[in-house]
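Researcher: We plan to redesign the surface later, but first we want a full-length starting point. Tokens attached.
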């Protein structure tokens, strides 16, 4: 039943990743086995100049990142149930002390810091496992057991991290789990650390936020996430070096747990296993549902992902709703006022801690100020009549912020965050009338190419720009050529070469991965992507009405508009009835009493529904199953299912 299964493919794609990456080794000379060329002379010179600037900035981060080291698994290799490797620090052994010319020196430095893995003592009674996944697992020692904060992305990595803790510190039970926010790298491994009676602490709205975004828009987000995290790129100095927040998401088995303790207001307190906690409720900041926690007896604040040792994203390149810079900055300011004077150590969901009272306050001040600065200055420049592109080119950080490593653009960037603020207030339209109804990309490209004298002439102009080191302009020209003539090998290769150099110069790891993945796909094409693998525990947590909302986005409106229909879906095992109405090509759904004059009524179980979504049952099994009973017009029901389009998780991005 492929039409139904497409509803959940979005969730599966985000969780399951985007295909196998090639195992290649860079070569010092020409192109490597993946087709990537060396840094050009222009890029190499630019990165050499930046290296001197990076070296001049004060920092003792290498010392801090190793502070409190307890132990590690030296030959760590974590596999999923199929035997596929999902985590192996040795993949990044190429990150030597001396930066390579094909990587921005600041990003190289960040990648080396994020390569450090093991168990670390943050303060008496507080530990972290870092470098066993994209995020950190934090551990608070209680009177009889341990409180786990953020149990990583996957069951497999969480199991390895917990095994390391038990081996180095002695085995103790898990007293409680804190899920700081609704992104999967902070809750997906909860099944490895929590039992059925383990207290689960999470912010209000956690469960809905954790699944809703991926169900509704997951196909597009998943495809773009493959670009943002460089899933198909080799782990080399010409490929993926890290994400800025860490290395990469560990895509194994994913679980979720409903909260037993909900934090919905700042100032809430809890005491579990002798550990006192004060919570800050910080929704609509880095995540829709987020909290931070202060430990008054330890003078320690867990900032979740409200603060990190990088500039974060106000807009994430995988695609998501723009985040509120003002609310984010305000939440950090509130934390500074509420906890700053009592804090001697800050530990977060990513990176290494901050030690010292004054150092903690300085860190929070810079984090608070960078998001509000971007917010305020974007609006100031917009009031001068600048559009989002002009603002991105104009805005700069003041020297006192620009000199702080912890707010550099290793993940989010000043340019795309400024565009995000503009979008939040003014939307996609920049006010220029010619941009109100522009030509579609392919038609515009064809007309530009024709006006410039044909594909060969445009490629020649792009080549001249490339050889002059004007890689942004070379990419602009070559993209028009590719969209006008997608099979022109010269245009594709020149665009790939321009993307390479833009990636090599990018300070942001996601920008680098986006550019290099574009170059890779221009040369190798798009792999068929598996978008159906979603953790059963996560599927069980998705409300039925959310599935129906997602189904509505798959409906072929023109075909559906030919006739209005009404169907009842009665889920006998959970006592829910959902009424589906097709009206003017729109699918409406509501949990309500069954409609007497419906075209058809389907009685089924939620368990069978999930089997359909996961493609464990198809059309033949559906019609013949005792768990799927149809009363009424079967042909009308089958016609409805036939109008649900199968998503295309491998849609083209760098070609039309």
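Model: Full-length starting sequence:
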């Amino acid at each position: 039943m492929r039409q139904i299964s497409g509803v959940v493919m979005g969730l599966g794609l985000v969780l399951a990743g985007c295909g196998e990456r090639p195992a290649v080794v860079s070569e010092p000379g020409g192109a490597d086995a993946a087709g990537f060329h060396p840094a050009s002379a222009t890029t190499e010179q630019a990165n050499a100049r930046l290296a001197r600037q990076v070296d001049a900035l004060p920092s003792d981060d290498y010392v801090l990142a190793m502070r409190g080291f307890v132990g590690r698994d030296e030959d760590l290799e974590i596999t999923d149930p199929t035997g596929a490797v999902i985590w192996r620090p040795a993949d990044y052994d190429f990150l030597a002390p001396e930066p390579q010319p094909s990587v921005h020196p600041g990003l190289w430095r960040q990648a080396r810091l994020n390569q450090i893995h093991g168990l670390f003592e943050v303060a008496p009674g507080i530990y972290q496992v870092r470098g066993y996944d994209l995020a950190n697992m934090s551990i608070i020692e209680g009177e009889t057991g341990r409180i786990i904060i953020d149990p990583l992305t996957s069951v497999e990595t969480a199991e390895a991290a917990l095994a390391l803790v038990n081996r180095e510190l002695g085995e103790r039970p898990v007293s409680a789990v804190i899920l700081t926010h609704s992104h999967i790298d902070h809750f997906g491994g909860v099944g490895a650390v929590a039992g059925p009676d383990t207290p689960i602490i999470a912010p209000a709205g956690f469960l809905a936020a954790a699944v809703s975004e991926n169900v509704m828009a997951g196909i597009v987000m998943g495809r773009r996430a493959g670009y943002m995290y460089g899933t198909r790129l080799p782990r080399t100095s010409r490929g993926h070096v890290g994400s800025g927040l860490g290395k990469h998401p560990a895509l194994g088995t994913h679980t979720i747990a409903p909260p037993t303790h909900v934090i919905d207001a700042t100032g809430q307190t809890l005491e579990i296993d002798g550990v006192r906690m004060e919570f800050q409720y910080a929704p609509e900041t880095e995540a829709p549902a987020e909290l931070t926690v202060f430990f008054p007896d330890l003078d320690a604040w867990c900032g979740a992902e409200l603060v990190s040792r990088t500039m974060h994203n106000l807009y994430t390149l995988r695609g998501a709703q723009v985040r509120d810079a003002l609310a984010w900055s305000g939440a950090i300011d509130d934390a500074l006022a509420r906890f700053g004077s009592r804090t001697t150590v800050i530990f977060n969901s990513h990176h290494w801690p901050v030690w010292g009272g004054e150092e903690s306050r300085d860190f929070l001040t810079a984090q608070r100020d960078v998001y509000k600065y971007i917010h305020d200055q974007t609006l100031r420049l917009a009031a001068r009549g600048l559009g989002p592109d002009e603002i991105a080119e104009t805005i700069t950080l003041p020297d006192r912020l620009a000199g702080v490593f912890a707010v550099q653009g290793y993940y989010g960037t000043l340019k795309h965050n400024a565009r995000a603020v503009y979008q939040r207030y003014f939307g996609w339209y920049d006010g220029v009338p010619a941009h109100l109804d522009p030509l579609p990309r392919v038609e515009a490209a064809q007309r530009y190419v024709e006006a410039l004298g044909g594909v060969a002439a445009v490629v020649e102009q792009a080549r001249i720009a490339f050889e002059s080191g004007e890689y942004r302009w070379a990419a602009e020209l070559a993209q028009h050529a590719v969209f006008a003539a997608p099979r022109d090998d010269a245009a594709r290769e020149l665009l790939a070469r321009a993307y390479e150099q833009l990636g090599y110069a990018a300070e942001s790891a996601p920008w680098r991965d986006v550019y290099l993945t574009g170059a890779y796909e221009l040369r190798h094409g798009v792999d068929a992507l598996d978008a159906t693998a979603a953790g059963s525990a996560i599927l069980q947590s998705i409300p039925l009405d959310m599935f129906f909302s997602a189904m509505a986005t798959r409906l072929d409106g023109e075909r559906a508009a030919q006739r209005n229909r009404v169907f009842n879906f009665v889920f006998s095992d959970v006592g829910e009835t959902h009424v589906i109405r097709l009206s003017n090509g729109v699918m409406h759904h509501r949990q309500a009493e069954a409609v007497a004059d419906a075209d058809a009524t389907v009685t089924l179980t939620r368990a069978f529904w999930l089997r359909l979504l996961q493609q464990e049952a198809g059309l033949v099994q559906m019609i013949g199953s005792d768990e799927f009973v149809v009363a009424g017009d079967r042909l009308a029901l089958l016609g409805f299912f036939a109008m649900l389009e199968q998503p295309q998780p491998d849609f083209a991005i760098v070609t039309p």
